[in-house]
Amino acid sequence: MRRGFVRAIWGDTQRQIEKIRKEVTLAREHDIPLSPVKALCWGRENYRHFRDTGFDPVLVSYDPYAQPPSTIFKDCQRKFTTGEACGSFWRHKLLALDLAFDHFDEFVFLDWDILPYFPLPTDFWERFQERDPIQATLAVYHVRQIPWKLIDMRKIVSGAVIYLRDRAIAKELLAISLANPTWREELCVMYYIDVVLGHFPRTDDQMHNARVYNDRHQPWCVSFKNSMDRHFGIDGSEAIFRY
């Protein structure tokens, strides 16, 4: 069983690249290293920065985008921006989830600003097996996030940490993204779990609905400031990744 961590970088806008490259350097210098890590790169310059920083990068494409630049809104920095261009921008993360299976059978995808607070325990990977093949933290926001239902509209997964052990799911997420080109990656993951799998009940008891989700899809090692943990009395003390 090949297990590891995946990070990715794409794009060429100065603001975006400067921010992420700082995070790349911090991740490399962090005193609690993760291993093994595959760093997936779109763009020759991004690849060079990974390599010079000390990572073992994988060059996906010389082009910094998976699609022609005319279809990418290059300044799409805000996660809640909508529109086809923004959907195309965040689709790179779903592409990374699929490509990661060329290197691992099971992995955790991490945004660059996600760093471990504690060393990994010896049963780190085994504990993921207790829940479903796709896991991501459920978060709750003040405004509507979900366009396809009229209950629990403010709850959506966070894309900062995603666990996967089934490539068919990654393919399905890409299909959802292509069918809904305005959606960012978090909407695609939420749609898969909610609609395709049917793992998010639509009862009037919203706490029950969230608990059903958490029991199957909440990564055991993650605590997020907007997550449902505090509603369930979970203190997050064992969380390795916090954000």
Structural descriptors:
single chain, 243 residues, alpha/beta, Spore Coat Polysaccharide Biosynthesis Protein SpsA, Chain A, 6-stranded mixed beta sheet, two-stranded parallel sheet, 7 helices, 8 strands
Number of domains: 1
Strand order of the largest sheet: 3-2-1-4-6-5
Provide the CATH architecture: Alpha-Beta Complex
What is the number of E strands? 8
CATH fold title: Spore Coat Polysaccharide Biosynthesis Protein SpsA, Chain A
Instruction: Provide the gyration radius in Å.
Output: 17 Å
| Topology as a string of helices (H) and strands (E) | EHEHEHEHEEHHHEE
What class would the helix/strand composition place it in?
Answer: alpha/beta
Quaternary state of the chains: single chain
Description:
Helix 3 packs antiparallel against helix 5 (167-179). The longest helix has 16 residues, at 14-29. The chain has helices at 14-29, 44-53, 84-99, 124-128, 167-179, 185-196, 206-217; strands at residues 3-9, 37-42, 57-61, 106-110, 134-140, 155-164, 222-223, 241-242. The two termini are 29 Å apart. It has a single domain (3-242), classed as Spore Coat Polysaccharide Biosynthesis Protein SpsA, Chain A (Alpha-Beta Complex). The protein contains 7 helices and 8 strands; from the N terminus they run E-H-E-H-E-H-E-H-E-E-H-H-H-E-E. It is α/β, with parallel strands linked by helices and 243 residues long. The strands form 2 sheets. Strands 3-2-1-4-6-5 form a 6-stranded mixed sheet, with helices on both faces. Helix content is 35%, strand content 18%.
